[in-house]
């Protein structure tokens, strides 16, 4: 029987990549980088073999989609921020059997259409690439499955059902698994007119978004997910949550949705980035 042994919600901002490169941004996101590395170490210690990444940078306009390739290799440049994230080499091993199992369970047993793809030219997005790079997926030998979570026409309860399917697929398999929800909290990027100094990389676009983010994190730290799941759809819409926070809905679906009551551990404290609110947090998994 397979086990979910680790779960987290993480940031993937491009300045985390630049923080590791020589230049004016070097070291600027050290706390966030250290948080990812700590999570990688914990996953290795827990015997994780496959990481399922819920990627809010993979946009889909119909159904749900999983990159089920057996191998990923390439050089990535962001279409969104080519001046910040360019020529990033990557190579990972996939887990096509798990991708297919998730899609089968979600579609045939739970009534939500999920498609698993085996297309060599279907590349990974940086919502997967940055966390897997910093968490040491290649070095530690983690297999990678990437799930699209920039969901434009989807319902949060559908996404929670996909999360439930992920958990069931894990438990019907063998080995140890991690789920990493990759995306921000609020995600209202600064308007273009504000991009005149370096300050915009390190501030939020509106204090309202920050205060709602902090309240959400208080609920997480207190294990109050009955309240959080009730507020999630409006929170995601009003505060422009990245991917409308469908990654978070899937993560909580895998953990029990509104019945989940574990106190979340904040590994990297809340930080502001290009208008958005970010955090690295571990969601304890029930034995």
From TrEMBL:
<dbReference type="GO" id="GO:0008687">
    <property type="term" value="F:3,4-dihydroxyphenylacetate 2,3-dioxygenase activity"/>
</dbReference>
<dbReference type="Pfam" id="PF02900">
    <property type="entry name" value="LigB"/>
</dbReference>
<dbReference type="InterPro" id="IPR011984">
    <property type="entry name" value="HPCD"/>
</dbReference>
<dbReference type="InterPro" id="IPR004183">
    <property type="entry name" value="Xdiol_dOase_suB"/>
</dbReference>
<keyword id="KW-0560">Oxidoreductase</keyword>
<keyword id="KW-0223">Dioxygenase</keyword>
<dbReference type="GO" id="GO:0008198">
    <property type="term" value="F:ferrous iron binding"/>
</dbReference>
<protein>
    <submittedName>
        <fullName>3,4-dihydroxyphenylacetate 2,3-dioxygenase</fullName>
    </submittedName>
</protein>
<feature type="domain" description="Extradiol ring-cleavage dioxygenase class III enzyme subunit B">
    <location>
        <begin position="7"/>
        <end position="283"/>
    </location>
</feature>
